[in-house]
Specification:
Elements: H1 35-40, H2 42-54, E1 60-66, H3 72-79, E2 81-88, H4 91-100, E3 107-111, E4 123-129, H5 138-149, E5 151-162, H6 173-181, E6 187-193, E7 197-203, H7 210-213
Parallel strand pairs: 1-2, 1-4, 2-3, 4-5
Antiparallel strand pairs: 5-7, 6-7
Bound molecules: S-adenosylmethionine.
S-adenosylmethionine binds next to helix 3.
Length: about 220
Amino acid sequence: MTERVSRIDRPANASRWHPSARRTSTTCTPGTTTRGAFDSRWYEERKRAALLAALPWRHYRATFEAGCSTGALTAHLADRSDRVLAVDLAPAALERARRRLAGRDHVELRRAMLPDDWPEGAFDLVVLSEVAYYWAGADLDRGLTAAVASLSPDGHLVACHWRHPVAEYPHTGDDVHDALAARPDLVRLVRHEEEDFVLEVFGHPGARSVATEAGLVS
Ligand SMILES: C[S@@+](CC[C@H](N)C(=O)[O-])C[C@H]1O[C@@H](n2cnc3c(N)ncnc32)[C@H](O)[C@@H]1O
């Protein structure tokens, strides 16, 4: 492998993610001032591929992405969904997402501060990727509760978060995933853990594995 994840590639030093910088944030990782650099960073590209591969269904009816930033993941979710709603609090990031997703009429981009502005409606895919560790205090539980409440009865919640501590974030990724694992209203279908990030997929109790849904096991 010729490309390595350098220190500057890591989100851990993400001053642009800090809540105090969020309103003007256009990017997710430090050292990244253009959409292209973020998109092509191998760490991010590989993580997006892992998340997309972990989704139990090939296609979803309605997807909600919380904290979509410039829409790099949103574009892939749009390939797998009839309809996507993606929100972010940063207007500049949303503007880039709008440019990226121009012409994809089944994608709606909206400004929202989560968990307060959680959208109405049910989604069969809810995506919490690199966002829930921003929810300080009671907001973490409120955000996770809102995510579960917006999940259709057969839906999937996918969560993926950086595991290393970041001084400015109220929670680590592990805190978020511990809180998800402790919920009695979710069962885990997938867990992928690395030193740097954890990726999990949940459903409501009774959710079935991919092989079970396909009739390969009973
Ligand atoms: C690292 S980016 C994640 C982008 C995308 N989900 C992904 O994984 O590639 C985090 C985004 O969450 C947004 N964000 C942080 N806190 C938020 C909040 N409370 N409500 C809405 N968006 C938020 C930031 O503005 C930023 O664009």
